[in-house]
Specification:
With 144 residues, the chain is α+β, with helices and mostly antiparallel strands. Helices cover 60% and strands 18% of the residues. Helix 4 runs antiparallel to helix 6 (115-143). The radius of gyration is 17 Å and the shape is globular.
């Protein structure tokens, strides 16, 4: 995801970045323990973390599973392009959420599908809602 953000925003692969992350402490500790690999793969020079770490102004945002991360962009990119990127992610997530909502609101699907399939769709729905909320929050903070 970090590499994709750097490519999408045309950030030079050789530029070092700081990663600020919120989320599951165990997963973040895995990231921190592998900072040498991350330095080689995506040029992360520092990882800041916390349970409720504030999003820095003018930051790229990524969400992977239950980890939300920010890459401060000051001096690295064009903010308008980042707004467009986030808007595309919001649109995609709204489409996914709409498809899952439609499926779960179909009584025939809920009655006839195996319970595991229905539960899987419900988990997807919760994940999509959570990701959409974070994306919208970050998009709105860049716009204001």
């Amino acid at each position: 995801k970090i590499r994709n953000i750097k490519v999408t925003l045309s950030i030079s692969p050789v530029k070092s970045i700081t990663l600020i992350s919120n989320g599951n402490k165990e997963k973040i500790n895995i990231l921190k323990s592998n900072i040498n690999l991350l330095e080689q793969l995506v040029k992360i020079n520092k990882i800041e973390d916390g349970e409720k770490k504030e999003k820095p102004s003018q930051s790229a945002v990524g969400v992977v599973e239950d980890i939300e991360f920010f890459i401060p962009l000051k001096g690295l990119i064009d903010i308008e392009k980042e707004i467009e990127r986030l808007q595309k992610q919001v649109d995609d997530m709204q489409g996914r959420l709409g498809a899952v909502n439609k499926k779960l609101s179909n009584e025939n699907f809920v009655k006839r599908a195996p319970i595991e399939v229905v539960e899987h769709e419900q988990k997807k729905q919760l994940n999509y809602k959570s990701n959409l909320e974070k994306l919208l929050e970050n998009l709105n903070s860049l716009k204001s």
